[in-house]
């Protein structure tokens, strides 16, 4: 019998106890959970994450104590456990192991996550449930779904999210109407992070609803040269914290120039290291590739349009779905592993 | 190794040494610190009390066993757990003897129930029955493990786990028969 659910259950029981302890005795238990992760984590991604976390937590006044305590206080424990295990174990441990094995055998890079732009017109939208099934077989357990007013069959998509309970999904709303639509959902989605779209100057008014429903959520802002300075400014970051967002995900606009992308990427890393705010900023494309690099020494990223045609890398010309399986698409579009070249 | 893990390991080793010869209730935080030359302040930076340290020893070593058996099946894993208990016999006999609201048995049962539930998910579809089955067999396993540890080396971990496996297998088969 497959032992993976058993391993996952044992880790989940340790994490569950850790979360309960944090409610009772926050700072000490946060350190203990991180130290336990360090002891158990064998993957490079985990080691790197836990080493950074241990270093930050040496400072007993670190704002990250407040960040974790607020997450534990505000998010449904089952959601916190499920989402955390799906990213930490399914994706960064088990999935990473499968990806490394595949890359070694086939000599082609496999992304640890897939970004799916579901908010684009598509004559025939791709079948998410098939994509996730094929992705899991390769070791891909994380999916960023960009949803908006043009997203077709949202109900089917959310049903797939609910069904694929060992994967982590990031539901990235792209407009105010979708912010509200996602926030009002009543279905249990412990494996999903909700990301209402916001930024200068307006904020989504859905944080209260998501907080009341005890979802795990993040503010999601699109940046370009026009608003990057504001999004990285002290007044903006403080206002995000005041609205109880634990994470800030910054995504470059399609038109954003490379210099702005590089500058935002560097500032996000500096912000995380400085730890001035109880907020964890993420530069989406750069961090997705950074994690990929940690998992398998080389970075790659796969972003698909709603119809399955790759947006990144561009110029492939063939779509996932009717024309290609995910594995065939990856072999066609992802860079070769260097040692095989 | 990071400093935090070094300190935690030293305190863990100290508790394990003391529990070889002394009942848990007769060991104080001061004794643990004295044994490894640490200051009490260091202890309380990492752990709330001695029960917290005991649970840390269990979880940290237990998860290491999981990792080294990632490819094996659940029974191979439980065999490794029992071998680990046997290697640390005096420590775990002492730990299982703790009673009250901080009883180590409760910590162990919680983990065992989670493992059994995951294992039996395919075997027993009826959720209510599965829950009862897991509670029942977790208690049974724990009591049997304690009895087995007390019996010395009369039976190997392998033989002991095989008996446990036969018990679960025959119960799940019977359960299938009775439904049919």
Word description of this protein:
The complex is a heterodimer of chains A (341) and B (180). By secondary structure, chain A is of the alpha/beta class. Chain A has one domain (76-333): TIM Barrel (Alpha-Beta Barrel). Chain A is 52% helix and 14% strand. Chain A is built from 14 helices and eleven strands. Chain A has helices at residues 4-24, 26-40, 44-57, 63-74, 77-106, 128-138, 154-163, 176-183, 207-212, 228-231, 234-242, 258-274, 284-296, 326-333; strands spanning 113-117, 142-147, 168-173, 192-195, 197-198, 216-217, 219-223, 247-252, 280-283, 302-305, 310-312. The radius of gyration of chain B is 18 Å and the shape is elongated. Helix content of chain B is 76%, strand content 0%. The longest helix of chain B is centred in the C-terminal third of the chain and has 24 residues, at 127-150. Chain B has helices spanning 3-18, 29-36, 40-46, 50-68, 74-87, 89-96, 104-120, 127-150, 157-179. Chain B contains nine helices and no strands. In chain B, 29% of the residues are buried. The model of chain B has no long low-confidence stretch (mean pLDDT 89). By secondary structure, chain B is an all-alpha fold. Classes of the chains: A alpha/beta (341), B mainly alpha (180).
Which class of chain A in CATH terms? Alpha Beta
CATH topology of chain A: TIM Barrel
Model regions low in confidence, pLDDT < 50 over at least 5 residues of chain A: none
SSE ordering of chain B: HHHHHHHHH
| CATH architecture label name of chain A | Alpha-Beta Barrel
Q: What's the rounded overall pLDDT mean of chain A?
A: 91
Supply the helix-strand structural class of chain B. Answer: mainly alpha
Order of secondary-structure elements of chain A: HHHHHEHEHEHEEHEEHHEHEHEEH
Main sheet summary of chain A: 7 strands, mixed
Question: How far apart are the termini of chain A?
Answer: 38 Å
User: For the report, how would you describe the main beta sheet of chain B?
Assistant: none
Number of domains of chain A: 1
- Helicity level of chain B: over 70%
Beta content of chain B: under 5%
- Specify the number of helices of chain B: 9
| Total beta-strand segments of chain B | 0
Name the overall outline of chain B.
Answer: elongated
Number of helices of chain A: 14
Beta-strand percentage range of chain A = 5-15%
